[in-house]
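Task: fold both queries, return tokens.
Query 1:
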Amino acid sequence: LMVPGILSSLIIELIVSSCSMKSFYSCLMVPRRFENSPKRYAFRIADPMKMKQLHKGIDQLMDEGVAQLFTLKMNGRKIIGCVGALQFEVIQHRLEHEYGAKCKYSPISLHKACWMRSDNQAQLEEFKKRKYQFIAQDKHGNDVFLADSYFALTYAKDNFPDVEFFFTSELQKL
């Protein structure tokens, strides 16, 4: 999917872009207690003039714990993570009816969000350097690896054995 004004070399590049007339929030299924996350979606705002309402709504919904917000380190774009597909519909409904920001969502391709920790700081920094385009921060400032496939996650585990990956946000006190 190509969008004018957005570099689309990465799957996550469908998020918020200040240089585009169309604005996107990517939504990634992030398990809080469950490891499997079958569906991911990208939100698209119908009226770009409602961007302020969208940001306000997303911030308030994240504060309520409806979903999790990640910010890509590479470009500051935001990703919303949910436990189930129904939460996307709830977010969409609330954004439209409570904040006046009508939006639609469509599928995107991401596998998992993984919090990381390691006693080997050199290896952790090397991992973050190599996977920079897939590193985000949660609202607490913890780094999160957004694996785009099972293979990418397995490759990361095999090639960076000192880095531990966690699939639940309860492990935020890293």
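Query 1 returned. Query 2:
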Amino acid sequence: KYLAPSLTWQLSEATSVTFSSEYRWRRASQDFYLAAPNRDVRRLASRETRYQEPDDYQTEEGYSFGITIAQHLADDMSWKLAARSVRNDDASSWYDPVAVLPDLVTLQRRARSQHNQRQNEYADLSFSMPFVTGPIRHQLLLGMTAGEDSLDAHRKQFFNGATSGPLSRPGSGS
């Protein structure tokens, strides 16, 4: 689910300001790849096989805000300044397939639970100007981008399951 409204305000014939935002939310189940024991495709499980539990999930929620200021100057010259701020939280709880055991049938899984918070801040500045050299028309474009990304990853659970016995098998009781 998402919503992404924007609004442009034309301050003058030559100047505009655009405000934008986005909100996004999703909850999805996990279903990772099928293992091919000993890299032998003949040992591949059927495509209906699912190594994760029915209630394994990943949720994501994020939002962003942006502003763009555009100024048209004389003779098709223009400059633009854009800034964007993004926040995203995601959480997951599932079993990762991590290894095929020596019997080439049993899959070892990892119990994983994690919460991540991401933040991104960006700014772009650009300048555009046409010029001519003889019969050739050019468009000069100069720009610069600056930004910062941050991630706070909190691993709540990260445990490889047993490699033998009943706890090594997927399903209830493991």
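Both queries returned. Flag for query 2: The two ends are 34 Å apart (CA to CA).
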